[in-house]
Amino acid sequence: MSELTSDEIKSEQSFVSHLIELRDRLLRIVLAVVIIFIAMFGFANDIYHFIATPLMELLPEGQSMIATGVISPFLTPFKLTLIFSFYIAIPYILYQVWGFIAPGLYKHERKMVIPLAASSTLLFYIGMAFAYFIVFPIIFAFLTNTAPEGVEVMPDMKDYLDFVLKLFFAFGVAFEVPIATILLVWMGTTTPDKLREKRPYVIVGAFVLGMLLTPPDMISQTLLAIPMWILFEAGIIFSRFFVPKDDDDDPSPTSDGSSSTKRSSNIKSGSKQKHASTVKSADKSEESDDSLSEDEMEAELDKIEAEEASEESKEREERARKRARRAADNVRMDHYEPPISERYGPLDAASEKMLDEELDLMDGTAETETKVNTDPKPKQD
Predict the structure, then answer these.
(1) Do 138 and 186 meet the contact criterion of CB atoms below 8 Å apart?
(2) Domain ranges in the chain?
(3) Among 112, 119, 248, which residue's Cα sits nearest to residue 185?
(4) End-to-end CA distance of the chain
(5) What is the pLDDT of residue 289?
(6) Per residue in 200-242, pLDDT tens?
(7) CB count, 10 Å around CB of 340?
(8) Is the pTM here over 0.90, yes or no?
(9) CA–CA separation, 75 vs 48, rounded Å?
């Protein structure tokens, strides 16, 4: 078996350290949920009564919920408390996820993720509140009043819990539509104008999702589809502030060089238009004044083309300098910002020296050419 090189050993150690970091953060998430569950378990029956209030208030007089299972009176509140413990711990869960992925993001991406994570959590809670205070009274009033004659409405507590948890999750996810819209626009996948053109398809899709995520009744489907449509419109409005800006001085080149090729083609087309306009003006001046000969006109055109080529070269150099400066800033950020935990120690002296040389080279302060003495022996006469 061949021995591993130093680079392979460092790569394997880095992968193992990331796995350890992921394990630690998952354990913290589980521990947080368990702590919240232990604190709330003594109020499990009160929590279930609070969740069941919208239905129990609408039941006919003398009727109540029933438990058909042997362990349902204990297991159903237990299940509800555990799920609500997870919902309450969502901010801490997102914080742990953020702490794990943050080192792999650029500085401008970090500034965007924190507000999006906070707003997505708030919208999820708003969706659950909308389901409890608005949707539940309407649905249960309709269901209890449409029971056939001679049928007593006495819902099972386990079935009721499954029903409301499904609605809580459906409305919580549905209220994330603005965040999804903003993310699609921010990543450049689509634009607000294109989303506005697809509004009819989104409305149909909202009703289809309402049919799949809610129980098989028209009221809950409509009460989910209409807010999704409204939130989609709100997402289009706010996504206009997150449209990626096309800056000529700050290009984002792809691996195949598509952006640089596109920009150079635009420059060339602009040069051609300038050249054509110059030729037209030269032709008009020739018609009006025959003082310039053909050789002088060709010399003028060559001079104009040389100036345009010089300007294009300067623009390319300036863009390359700014890309190198941005790359240097990212390298500084990745290597000098505080680590996630104390296990990531400082760099050794050799690595620090190598990193400083690379940063100086990216900033343009280092010499662009290095002399290597390939023949150290003195030459013989």
Answers:
(1) no
(2) 6-173, 176-244, 258-280+294-339+352-362
(3) 112
(4) 51
(5) 46
(6) 898 898 888 888 877 667 777 888 888 889 988 988 888 888 7
(7) 16
(8) no
(9) 11
Q: What three-state secondary structure class fits 102?
A: helix
Q: What pLDDT, on the 0 to 100 scale, is given for residue 302?
A: 80
Determine the Cα–Cα distance for residues 202 and 142; give it in Å rounded to an integer. Answer: 28
Find the mean pLDDT for residues 249-260.
43
- Residue 76 and residue 56: Cα distance in Å, rounded? 16
Please write the tens of the pLDDT for every residue from 148-178.
Answer: 877 888 889 999 999 999 889 888 988 988 8
* Alpha helices (runs of H) in the chain, residue ranges in sequence order: 6-41, 44-56, 72-88, 90-101, 107-130, 136-145, 157-174, 177-186, 192-197, 199-213, 218-239, 258-288, 294-336, 349-363
**DSSP string covering 199-266:** HHHHHHHHHHHHHHHS-S-HHHHHHHHHHHHHHHHHHHHHHGGGPPP--TTS----TT-HHHHHHHHH
